[in-house]
């Protein structure tokens, strides 16, 4: 018995007018469908948002220990 | 001051604390032991130190299939090369077990087994290398892999002693180094060869627009005729000592296998350098290519499929010496015909050394050439 394969795609609704506008916009571009374009743009925006959030920095103990090693190896004065 | 974020969110660390690692070492005889190669041990260390963030271990079948089909992890994060642990036999190993991976009898890590599955060599080769031709070194290697794959989380117990420890930095090290140096924009240069003038011009052209350059030779299994690792390192040390500014350049190695996967590997190389904290990545002509398996610019073009990769690719044209310009130039800067151009050919440079000569200074810096020539055997046999 095979497990039912998970569907890779799902549907998001956008206004038909926007769909039509995008469809016209992507003619003769590398985008083969409105879905491709929307996926691309959303990934781009999402990545920018992630980029702007602050990542947990390293601890001060880490920093002290690593800097000592970097000095010993000659990477820092 | 902030360096680039690690891929997929945060920098991974799967290195056990000294206390936890010592405790495990005492109990090691209770675990089933799987011997791994030194190349696999490099991958284990890379996972442990976050070079492969956000991965925390070896991929499961579902993850592998997603990477092969869509060039993304199940989290939708861009990822192009499956990270696999292959074994020849799995008797006595079940899902849910914790096993020890050891190198030369020394425990390197534990693996919590989440999946045991079969390697589909044809699919892997076709998707990653775009071919099933066994003349392709990556395909040939896939055919030597064990038929079973183990997926699961790693916890690194110890780091094996290695050569080149003095030039080994991991992402936490480089992130602290870049931050301390006050660099925000950092370009990474991937290499497997000693630098000729063409490389130097690419590096310096990129460096002109960023705070610092991270020169990061890939150290790993090599083909006969390749330059030895120590030769590449000595050559870069010689170049950087005289021709780079110490305040904006850093050299350290990355132990990682070459897959010769062309465009997919260019993405993989860029992701690893993002984890080191780099913001830009130099992609040359036929990056990570071999023979004529890839279009020369496929590795540069593939970046347009990943708006969310989080590192900027810098696609470079090859540099050459133009006898009319009387300088080093490329297609974008020189209006003269190719008959006026002298190309920087790695093959020609190798030929000079093989015939016991030093390449002319129009190809390679004298300091670099001399240090290579001082090695009794610069090539892998
Ligand atoms: Zn010219």
Write a concise keyword list for the protein shown above.
heterodimer, A: 77 residues, mainly alpha, 3 helices, B: alpha/beta, 6-stranded mixed beta sheet, 6-stranded parallel beta sheet, 12 helices, binds zinc ion
Number of strands of chain A: 0
Radius of gyration of chain B equals 21 Å
Low-pLDDT segments of chain B: none
Q: Bin the strand percentage of chain B.
A: 15-25%
| CATH architectural type of the largest domain in chain B | 3-Layer(aba) Sandwich
Helical residue percent band of chain B: 25-40%
**By helix and strand content of chain A, what is the structural category?**
mainly alpha
Percentage of residues assigned to helices of chain A:
40-55%
Report the principal-axis shape of chain A.
elongated
What fraction of residues of chain A sit in β-strands?
under 5%
Q: Greatest chain-chain interface?
A: A-B, 24 and 24 residues
Secondary-structure-based class of chain B equals alpha/beta
Overall domain count of chain B: 2
Mean of residue pLDDT of chain A? 89
């Amino acid at each position: 018995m095979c497990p039912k394969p998970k569907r890779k795609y799902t549907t998001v609704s956008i206004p038909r007018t926007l769909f039509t506008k995008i469809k016209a916009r992507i003619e003769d571009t590398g985008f083969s469908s409105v879905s491709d374009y929307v996926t691309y743009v959303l990934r781009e925006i999402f990545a920018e948002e992630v980029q702007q959030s602050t990542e947990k920095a390293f601890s001060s103990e880490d920093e002290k220990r690593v800097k000592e090693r970097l000095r010993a190896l000659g990477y820092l004065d | 001051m902030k360096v680039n974020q690690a891929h997929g969110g945060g920098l991974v660390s799967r290195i056990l604390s000294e206390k936890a690692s010592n405790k495990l070492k005492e109990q090691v005889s209770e675990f089933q032991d799987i011997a791994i190669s030194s190349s696999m041990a490099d991958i284990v260390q890379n996972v442990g130190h976050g070079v492969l963030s956000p991965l925390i271990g070896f991929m499961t079948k579902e993850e592998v299939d997603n990477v092969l089909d869509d060039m993304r992890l199940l989290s939708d994060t861009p990822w192009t090369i499956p990270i696999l642990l292959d074994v020849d036999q799995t008797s006595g190993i079940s899902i849910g077990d914790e096993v020890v991976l050891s190198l030369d009898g020394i425990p390197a890590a534990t693996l919590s087994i989440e999946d045991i599955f079969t390697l589909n060599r044809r699919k892997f080769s076709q998707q990653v290398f775009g071919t099933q031709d066994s003349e392709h070194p990556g395909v040939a290697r896939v055919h030597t892999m064990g038929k079973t794959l183990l997926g699961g989380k790693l916890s690194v117990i110890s780091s094996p002693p290695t050569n080149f420890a003095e030039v080994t930095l991991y992402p936490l090290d480089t992130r602290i180094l870049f931050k301390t140096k006050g660099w925000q924009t950092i370009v990474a240069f991937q290499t497997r060869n000693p630098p000729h003038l063409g490389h130097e011009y690419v590096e310096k052209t990129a460096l002109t627009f960023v705070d610092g350059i991270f020169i990061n030779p890939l150290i790993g299994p090599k083909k006969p005729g390749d330059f030895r690792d120590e030769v590449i390192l000595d050559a870069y040390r010689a170049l950087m000592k005289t021709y780079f500014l110490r305040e904006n350049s850093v050299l350290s190695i990355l132990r990682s296998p070459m897959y010769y996967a062309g465009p997919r590997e260019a993405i993989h190389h860029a992701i690893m350098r993002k984890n080191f904290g780099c913001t830009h990545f130099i992609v040359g002509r036929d990056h990570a290519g071999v023979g004529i398996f890839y279009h020369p610019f496929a590795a540069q073009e593939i970046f347009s499929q990943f708006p969310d990769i989080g590192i900027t690719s810098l696609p470079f044209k090859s540099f050459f010496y133009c006898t009319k310009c009387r300088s080093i130039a490329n297609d974008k800067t020189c209006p003269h015909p190719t008959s006026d151009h002298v190309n920087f050919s790695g093959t020609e440079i190798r030929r000079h050394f093989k015939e016991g000569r030093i390449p002319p200074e129009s190809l390679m810096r004298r300091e670099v050439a001399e240090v290579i020539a001082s090695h009794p055997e610069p090539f892998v046999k």
